[in-house]
Amino acid sequence: MSKSGTLDLASGLGGKIDKEEVKSAVDEYEKYHGYYGGKEEARKSNYTDMVNKYYDLATSFYEYGWGESFHFAHRWNGESLRESIKRHEHFLALQLGLKPGMKVLDVGCGIGGPLREIARFSSTSVTGLNNNEYQITRGKELNRLAGVSGTCDFVKADFMKMPFVDNTFDAVYAIEATCHAPDPVGCYKEIYRVLKPGQCFAVYEWCITDHYDPNNATHKRIKDEIELGNGLPDIRSTRQCLQAVKDAGFEVVWDKDLAEDSPLPWYLPLDPSRFSLSSFRLTSVGRMVTRTMVKALEYVGLAPQGSQRVSNFLEKAAEGLVEGGKKEIFTPMYFFLARKPE
């Protein structure tokens, strides 16, 4: 059901941005980031524009390479990437104690891969919150093809200002999404507001670890690369995220960086030193093929001008993620389970 071919990739490049305006959108997006001299304040004050441009530009690349679930996973030996991604989503559902009939919110749902998997796994109704029109359009089509339109839906909105009344949901989760929030406390407060008392919020956060040194030029470069290639205003520390959820009013049940005891490194799919047929498009060879293909598509006019530059900053992100993982200064799976008091 995901984009599986060259023409599928080309047709989605640019998302909802007019094809003639993709190049200027890339120009504007790049200027936000420290890698090109941009400032954190500008990224935070314009986060809606920045993140929307990012996902319009990058979603087709993600779907082409990763499938429907755009996230990393704790991974066991002998386990495929796809199996680990599903288990990572099931783990979240189990931690939340999801039961048939519960009403669940997915904050920053992408095109809804986790939403569909969790809904089917737990027999719950899941609403995906997303501020990107292109991803919602794709998600609705994928829901239809999967036969889950009756239990899964999407709402277009900013997760800093959710259009739900207080105490609406039985559970809330976010998978590598609230890292886009300009203010974690404000984001978590909105989640707290729409969650019913006594119920739980679970999240996988992108964070810098205690090994990160802001005065280390290499560490700073890696952080800039990850922010550029992933549409982030800033990467917060695990300590900052934990304090933020407490400041929002939650009681923390437990927290852990799940990357610390993953038998296989979370960044393995992007590691240039490995080769895999099952996830070939994510390998260095596969990414080189994609890069060459996008260059050709742009040259003959099937892909909009600027597509190759999007491919390039996603490549830069992959390099930063692998280097950040190997140096243990970055994690995409700082997990915490928090409860809203009765």
TrEMBL record:
UniProt-listed InterPro entries: Erg6_SMT_methyltransf, Methyltransf_11, MeTrfase_SMT, SAM-dependent_MTases_sf, Sterol_MeTrfase_C
Protein name: Methyltransferase
Pfam families, sorted: Methyltransf_11, Sterol_MT_C
UniProt keyword annotations, A-Z: Lipid biosynthesis, Lipid metabolism, Methyltransferase, S-adenosyl-L-methionine, Steroid biosynthesis, Steroid metabolism, Sterol biosynthesis, Sterol metabolism, Transferase
Keyword Lyase listed: no
Domain SAM-dependent methyltransferase Erg6/SMT-type: 54-341
Annotated Gene3D superfamilies: Vaccinia Virus protein VP39
One record GO biological process: sterol biosynthetic process
Protein family: Belongs to the class I-like SAM-binding methyltransferase superfamily. Erg6/SMT family.
Molecular function as annotated in GO: sterol 24-C-methyltransferase activity
CDD domains xrefs: AdoMet_MTases (cd02440)
EC number(s) recorded for this UniProt protein: 2.1.1.-
The keyword S-adenosyl-L-methionine is assigned to this record: yes
The organism's place on the tree of life at top rank: Eukaryota
Pathway(s) it belongs to: Steroid biosynthesis; sterol biosynthesis
UniProt enzyme class: transferase
GO cellular component assignments: endoplasmic reticulum
